[in-house]
Amino acid sequence: MSLRKVPCTIVTGFLGAGKTSLLRHVLQNADGRRLAVIVNEFGDVGIDGEILKGCGIASCPEENVVELANGCLCCTVADDFVPALESLIGRPDAPEHILIETSGLALPKPLVKAFNWPAIASRVTVDGVVAVVDGPAVAAGRFADDPEALAAQRAEDASLDHDNPLEEVYEDQLLCADMILLNKADLLDEATLDTVERDIRAVVPRAVKVLATRNGAVEPRILLGLGAAAEADLEARPSHHDDEEEHDHDDFESFVVELPETADPEAVVARLRRTAEAHDILRMKGFLAVAGKPMRLLVQGVGARFQQQFDRAWAAGEARRSRLVVIGRSGLDRAAIAAALAT
Ligand SMILES: Nc1nc2c(ncn2[C@@H]2O[C@H](COP(=O)(O)OP(=O)(O)OP(=O)(O)O)[C@@H](O)[C@H]2O)c(=O)[nH]1
Fold it and tell me: What parts of the sequence cross the membrane (predicted)?
């Protein structure tokens, strides 16, 4: 048995930043390297695993995509994550490199810590933590504190870090990173790119490489092989949650909306966009069944920006169901959202 530890890359980044796009790119450009993927999502329905399985990439057969849906990896380390990793490295054709896509709301540090668990410590290492940043969302101030609300809160409780839970997650992800991808560069001009990069560097005290990317397209030879051994270097990665045993996700919620088959997907997507804007929904994703089409339509919404494409044919025996995961700050008006999407 080889004594070499299997390198693992943890891909973190807020909801919709481009993590799955990055994984897809790496899998498609693996140059024969045997890769495996562990995907975790916040919602109850796994969409990202579906997308990756739909790629049909030879170097990453379907059984090498392990989905850990329904929960948050950083909170289910013992029950889900460590066993999943053990099972992957215990296979006769164990992967040469493992990519771990955390949910957009997960804090990466508990996951890095898990690599020190005795069951796996001698067999795996964190080759690098890569944070994918949604450039336009940063530029739009998505992760910034509201100065007035913050001042009001500080007046009551001096210990509070931020009034915006999005900012805490975003900063924790950056603070843990060995490499940062400033993604969606195609949607920003040069000056805004520079501003966003400055914002990022203001959060991160260490010298970390920041690369501007489109669709997460970064060369696997740049991304893989960072050799960070992050699990041995936890002090360099501060977190807003360092004093907590466990953190909760009460700040965010998700639910699933079922829609009927449609003959007019454009109209459905327009409705999704309007609803996302009206209810400040952070993320919507899922598949639509379109009348007369053998393919399912993958629909992705990040804030009010939507994209759709046919991804694969509905399989024989698979129900043609239109289902979308909706994720937002806690307190979403589920009834109103469901009603707005149904009409
Ligand atoms: N214009 C543009 N769109 C992008 C880029 N990268 C990703 N997207 C789109 O953004 C949406 C979200 O991308 P994903 O790769 O699914 O993001 P994610 O981080 O995996 O999302 P979650 O797993 O839900 O947190 C999709 O519609 C992508 O096509 C980019 O560089 N430019």
Answer: none
ipTM associated with this complex: 0.99
The finding on whether 216 has its CB within 6 A of some atom of ligand 1 is yes
Mean pLDDT, consecutive 10-residue segments, the chain of 343 residues?
A: 82 94 92 89 70 68 76 69 90 92 88 92 96 95 68 55 75 95 98 96 90 96 94 90 66 90 95 95 94 95 94 90 91 93 81
| Residue among 52, 173, 186, 215 to mutate when testing ligand 1 (max atoms within 8 A of CB) | 215
Backbone angles phi, psi at 3, to 5 degrees: -90, -5
Class of the domain covering 252-342 = alpha beta
The finding on whether 293 has its CB within 6 A of some atom of ligand 1 is no
Backbone angles phi, psi at 252, to 5 degrees: -130, 155
Q: Is the dihedral of CA 90, 111, 230, 218 positive or negative?
A: positive
- 6-236: CATH number: 3.40.50.300
